[in-house]
Amino acid sequence: MLRSIKYIMIIFVIVPGVLFGQYFGKNKVQYEYFHWQYLQTEHFDVYFTDGGKSIAEFAGEIAEASYRQLKEDFRYEISKRITLIVHNSHNDFEQTNVDLNPGEESVGGFTEFFKDRVVVPYEGEWEKFRHVIHHELTHAVMLQMVYGAGVQSIITGMARLQIPLWLTEGLAEYESRGWDTESDMFMRDAALNEYVPPVDYLYGYMAYKGGQSVLYYLADKYGGEKIGELLGKIKITKSMSRGLKQSIGVDTKELTEKWHLYLKREYWPDIADRKEPEEIGKRLTDHEKWHNFVNSGPALSPKGDKIAFLSDKSGYFDIYLMSAIDGKIISKLVSGQQTPNLEELHWLRAGLSWSPDSKFVVFAAKAGAQDALHIVNVKKRKIVKELKFDLDGIFTPSWSPTSNEIAFMGVQNGEGDIYVYNLKTKKLRKLTHDVFSDLQPNWSPDGKKIAFVSDRGDMTKMDEIPPDFKIFREDFSQKDIYVIDVASGEITRITDTSGLESSPVFSPDGKKLAYTSDQCGISNIYVHDIETGINYPITNVVTGIFNLSWRGDEKKIAFTSFYKGGYDVYLLRNPLAIKAGDTKLKDTNFITKHPISRRGKKRPLVWDQAPPEKPEVTEQKKYKHFVFDDKFKNAQIKPLEQEKPIFLDSTEYKLKTGDYKVHNYRVKFSPDLIYGNAQYDQFFGLQGMTQIALSDVLGNHRLNIYTNLFYDLRNSNYQVSYFYLPHKTDFGIGAFHYAYYFYIWDYGIGWVRDRNYGANVYVSHPFSKFNRLDGALTWISIERDYINVPWLANETRNLLLADLSYTNDTVLWGYTGPVNGNRYAFNVRYSPALGNSGIEFLTLKLDYRKYFKIGKDYNFVFRFSGGASGGKQPQQFFLGGTSGWLNYKTSGGLRVRNLEDIYFSTFELPMRGGYYYERVGNRFFLNNIEFRFPLIRYFLMGWPLGIGFQNIRGALFTDIGGAWYDNNFRGADATGNSRIPALKDIFFGYGIGARMNLGMFVLRFDVAWNSDWANYTHGPYYYFSIGPEF
Fold first, then answer.
1. Residue 637 is part of a domain; what is its CATH number?
2. Are 513 and 633 contained in the same domain?
3. Is the Cβ–Cβ distance between 451 and 439 less than 8 Å?
4. Is the CB of residue 426 less than 8 Å from the CB of residue 435?
5. Which of these, 484, 483, 470, lies nearest to 436 by C-alpha position?
6. Which of 515, 511, 506 is nearest to 529 (CA)?
7. DSSP 148
8. Measured distance CA(203)–CA(7) in Å, rounded
9. Mean pLDDT by 10 residues, the chain (1030 residues)
10. Do 426 and 514 lie in a common domain?
11. Which of 138, 353, 789, 839 fits 399 for a cystine, CB–CB 3.0-4.6 Å?
12. Measured CA distances, 737 to 11, 546, 723, 797 (Å)
């Protein structure tokens, strides 16, 4: 096959910088090196790090219990062991190399399909940990059931059958939770406010909760066994629609109608029985007006006149200060998610607290490798102190009303406990110290007691917990309110209900304790009278109430509530005027249907196993060498019948004492991807393509091999690379050989072949999630053979390229490209002279981009880039066209005559309104300004196509740039009779475009014109291109 240089140039334009690594993008940072071990259960290999053995044991037991339930529900048994990788905290979890994308706070775990790897963090709550394990295992088991085990089975299976997101995520939620009050709240709100989409359009978070609701409806109507039957039919028919039809007897349209009717009957009666949040308290924020999702974590100031709260109204999570009277924003206290010390603000566990003098606010945030307490000066809007401790996680701080002490939840080695830090003495005290999950501490007004949430049941004496106590054998799903005496450590249980209690806060006089509880099926505010011990509700909301704050003024309670698809902050006045018995709560339909469990499907039980009769010695083999997966290495040698059974007997993974055997981790390569094909041609001989990707279980070592054989090695393409990723600094090495054929029309030269081969070393050092330093050293040799004109001497270029770049990136992404934040990069490239065939140059480049979010869907974008190259053979910059241009055209033809134009020049894009090579030089600048807006929100065609489009974005743009050689810049000259100088080295284009995300890629269409500002306007020029917006 003859490969044209046109094809090569398209690839280079679509993937700019492909030869020299990453350009923009946030970073995956390994802040620390982890020592890994693993234990085994019957069906799972559980990997863990130092201090995580108890977490791994819990994960293994829960995984086996969850699998027993999944096996029964799906009527399927897995054929391959599943790997479970457990991290001690979410901070550690975000450093995993199983997935190379930067971690996010909202990701609670994930399943990697090709190797059946489940990766989860422990975050201090056992029930949350159980849920995420069961959720992700549902993905893993369903994957094997529908697609089979192994990389190739999955790839071919997914090519034939795409399971919709609502089923994959909805099933995982349904299997791990059944139905619960949180899901009930989301769907009640969607039904009452009429934003429940059709089944085929369950996207985003609605894919989880909406999909869970669909499956709950099917189980409620047809029986739980229908879920397993549905999966079985999908597997057999290799079709979602046929599987649904054969199992349920309806298509998705009919299913939508029946499901929507079910929701109306389920929830519409609640309108008469319950109140909207605004009927209970004054709404102080407005997510509908601000076009955001979360306004939460309110903290009343000691005087009760101000509220600090967390919000994503800017697109990022920030901390704001507002008036408690009218909700007017006073100031932004903290800008989050854009600096290394404020990577994440823990919005899923929002917790803010004021100092007694109202001068400071404390909050917890991710600061690099660790969480930290941050203290911000309210008047100066400046963080004045950052406190880090030797803990895996820090959440929900509470400042004592009477002292310089701050209580918070700390997570370490599988224990979530209450800690108290004294700002004056700088001493940290662990107030609780046991295996239970202790959450959400809140001080009493006299500073002597702390209310908190725990799953400890009646075990209030920490020193009486049995030494052989195992949390996975207990019911840790119930959470109640407790109070601990700070001086003595004595714990008192306050609530013992069938619901989940949360967010305890003392009244300003210390006589009452308010909290939230979902015992009726909806999270409402309850009050506990400390003197009488009476508990009673004071609200009857239709959705749910969370994050209470009661301080300074006993007549005000600030809270968060979910309504109309978003969270807002409200203020309840005179809560003590509501007496016991004034508010009557009716159980929801869900609670009425499930009077025993009150939580829907009961979680799987963990059963004790008898210890083996003979003791086994723990394997402690020290890591020495890399090894390849045995099945991969011995595939042609070891007979199948001699393979060891993949599932283990308890004597193989447990000691006689009942403890798990622990093994040291060894690097073992196994395939991520193996793909190849081959053919034989009578003229060109053997041809074939192979792509192999190998990595270890943790993804820290990655080996990639690519070959495209054609005739012989000189005419073939092949590349090999290895990346070493377990440390903060990443290293990579590689070697490559590419052969390109293309036709040169000039002077009848005809066909030529270029061989491009060499080797490189790559180093990347991220300073944080947002900025990094990259370096690369590449040796490149280019050889050109003139096939049709042998009397022309072959050309050779030898280069040693040194690249160094600094990158900063804080942008947020939308459907088709970045929508908020900024990014910039500075790059230096140097090539010294290497004999007569060398190319000597030094190049400097700068690229700066700023994205302004205007409302919900509108954006203004500004970009400036520029560069200069010097030396004996400086690099050239080509301006004109756009990246990924499918119907491309060139100004003056393809520049293929000179090797330097092909391999050592760069396209600087976009500059629309012209073709490739409109401006050429060794100096350049480029300025792009765009206004991006929603062009088509939803469009449905009728006969004959019957197809629809949604979320098509539009753009108005101007591109102005120039290129010139050395100091010979001519920006504009006065010509003819025009009083306005005409552009020369500067090129100006403008136009309009549309973008649509098609899933695999973004399709762009632009129409542009160019003008010299004086004499002419040319155009229109049409651009069909692929790739995200810049």
1. 3.30.2010.30
2. no
3. no
4. no
5. 470
6. 511
7. -
8. 36
9. 38 36 83 96 97 96 96 93 97 96 92 93 96 97 88 75 93 95 96 95 93 96 92 92 93 95 94 94 96 96 96 96 96 95 94 97 96 98 97 97 96 95 97 96 97 96 87 92 97 95 97 97 97 96 97 92 98 95 94 63 47 35 38 37 65 87 95 75 60 95 92 87 98 96 84 94 97 97 90 90 97 95 97 89 98 92 98 96 95 88 94 97 98 89 73 96 95 73 94 94 97 89 97
10. yes
11. 353
12. 16, 60, 19, 14
Same domain, 57 and 206: no
- Assign residue 497 the CATH number of its domain: 2.120.10.30
Q: For 672-679, which contacts have Cβ atoms below 8 Å and span 24 or more sequence positions?
A: 672/114, 672/115, 672/151, 673/114, 673/151, 673/155, 674/151, 674/152, 675/155
What SS3 state is found at 676? Answer: strand
Buried b (16+ CB within 10 A) or exposed e, 45-66: bbbbbeebbbbbbbbbbbbbbb
16 upstream amide cis, omega within 30 of 0: no
d(CA 386, CA 339): 14
Beta strands in 60-217 (DSSP E): 82-87, 110-112, 117-121
Which pLDDT score is estimated for 595?
60
Hey, what are 288's tokens?
Answer: 């509908």
> What residues contact 942, with CB distance under 8 A and at least 6 apart?
none
Q: How far is CA 113 from CA 100, 147, 155, in A?
A: 14, 10, 10
Q: How far apart are CA 125 and CA 1017, in angstroms?
A: 65
910 preceded by cis ω (within 30°)? Answer: yes
- What pLDDT digit, counting tens, does each position of 349-374 carry? 999 999 999 999 999 999 999 999 99
Give residue 620's domain range. 34-160+612-666
- The Cα-based distances of 623 to 498, 608, 652, 848 in angstroms read 50, 33, 21, 45
The structure tokens listed for 1011 are 């003008």
Question: Would you give the DSSP letter of residue 587?
Answer: P
